[in-house]
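Blinded run. Sample ID left blank on purpose so nobody reads anything into the name before looking at the predicted structure. Input follows.
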Amino acid sequence: MANRTRREWLRAAGTAGIVGMAGCSSSGDTDNNEPTGTAEPADTDEAMETDEGEGSAPGSGAPMYRYDPANTGAAQGETGPQSSISEQWAFETGGPVVSSPAVVDGTVYVGSRDNSVYALAGADGSAQWTYQTEAGVSSSPAVVDGTVYVGSEDNSVYALSAAEGSERWTFQTEGSVISSPAVVDGTVYVGSEDNSVYALSAADGSARWTFETESIVISSPTVVDGAVYVGSYDNHVYALAAADGSEQWTFGTRDTVSVSPAVVDNTVYVGGENVYSLSATDGSELWNSEFGVSPAVVDGTVYVVRAGAIAALSASDGSEQWTYDTESRGLTSLPVVVNGTVYVGSGDNRIYALSE
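Blinded prediction complete.
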């Protein structure tokens, strides 16, 4: 499990072909922006317990993969289910769902390996529209200014109307697009298995620049303060100028980098065999830890998973604050932090909610 790539994580996580939402049964309106499948409360005294009835209407505030262009995996302004969990609805697709949903204005946007992108009503899961691609959709949609941007394994990036699912433009690469787009200031940044990172015009899909690495790119780009941070299977993390794609620095890791960097307070956190903390300015290593996989970062703490464990590390030096071992040999989703609670999916068919 230590060397598990994002592609392997995607395959492991997407066996059910079901998009679902769960909430607190007492209020009936609390949302969780991350689940794929039916939620079961963790059978542990260490799971977070708070007052019931706290929540918000389904469908607020998760416009792209890992919540924001910085890929922090944290949504402090939102709320998620914390006790008395019950299924609100489930929608079954024709194939595995390994795409993380985007949730905007009461609608859930998600891809499926049945070659489709779906828009579902956040309130009841009813299908609003479906768009068919030529291959599976493992990429997670980004929804910005009324447009859904998403990649497909048919080697394409699509821009679709968020309201009706009609195609606005498509951009062809030479490899599968597993990477999830980041959309910032009118530009779509995305990786491809043709060993490239692309910057595309959000308006018409024309290429603004292309950066080539030595191997496939399924990492989702992180865009912060005029820089694009992205990993490659060539065992490197790259920092590129958002304006023209020129290389600012590169950092070599011990393993392929398939996950998305998180950038907080001028520091880049990225997982693989280890999790690394790097200076966003020059790529110098600040610290590394044996815990790997794409981190969530909030309030000076880095949350990571490895095998069946969830760990909280100090953002300043990587020291371990706490570790929680699940009953599973593997966790099947990346950690998400919502309003003081850490959520992660597990191979033991549970979603764990832990106190931050």
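Unblinding after everyone has recorded impressions. The two ends are 24 Å apart (CA to CA).
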